[in-house]
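[job 0412] stage=complex_fold ligand=L-MYO-inositol-1-phosphate status=START
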Amino acid sequence: MTDAEELLSLAEDIAREAGVLARRRREEGVRIAATKSALADIVTDADREVEELIRARLAAARPDDGFLGEESGAERGMSEVTWVVDPIDGTVNYAYGTPHYAVSIAAVTGEPSPEAWTAVAGIVYTPVIDEAFTAARGEGAWLRTQGGGPQRLAVSSPTDAGALLATGFGYDPATHEGDLDRVRRVLPFARDIRRAGAASLDLAYVAAGRLDGYFERGLHPWDHAAGALLVTEAGGVVSGQPEGRPGRQMTIAASADLAARLAEAIYR
Ligand code: LIP
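[job 0412] stage=complex_fold status=DONE, emitting structure tokens
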């Protein structure tokens, strides 16, 4: 087993345990613990509890690694590995009881910033339907479910009907005019637009060919760290800004041809 595959195996065990906790807390009832960047940007007690579980399991298994989590922040490690974690991506869906949410865990090496890191392992696990989208660098991207064998993932290409695209809108209403303008610019070559509310799953679905492409402004590192590796290991490309990497200014994920067409429309 390669180092990347060992990191992925650890991440998958922890993501599945974290998903069980998130689902149980959802069934017990969810409390909004606080708002963050805007009134719509919420965090639940479960977000915090699930991240604490993930962080504790990673520290027990690999105490020298670094950590960057949505709810508990960053801590540099002594090893070359940093774990980038969104404990419940799709928090608003989760709070409303919509089952479209995921645990996203990525292992990256190098400088722990999205402009510089190298993602080496990633998992996006959605506990309600028990789908684990996984990738180890150089080993392809795979869908793993409890009920069947692993299915290799591959990005799709749009049909003559147009591209099935996904996007998102930021928590800050002041950004919505720009978000809508980007939708207007891509609609001429889209068959439809999806807004499902969990960036990591949007990226996983691009990797799986369930979406042709995805674009969103304003993502945090933990939103895209694992999903971006899924897309590239499934034969797609992930770009954005700055320097063409996914970041707060933009994330674009698709096959190479569609990603170029999205970038031309979005940045025009
Ligand atoms: C969310 C993303 C979603 C985006 C939301 C938010 P969270 O992450 O998954 O795509 O549109 O603004 O960033 O807050 O649920 O972890």
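The pocket of L-MYO-inositol-1-phosphate is lined by residues 70, 86, 89-91, 168, 170-171, 197-199, 216, 223 (CB under 6 Å).
[job 0412] exit 0
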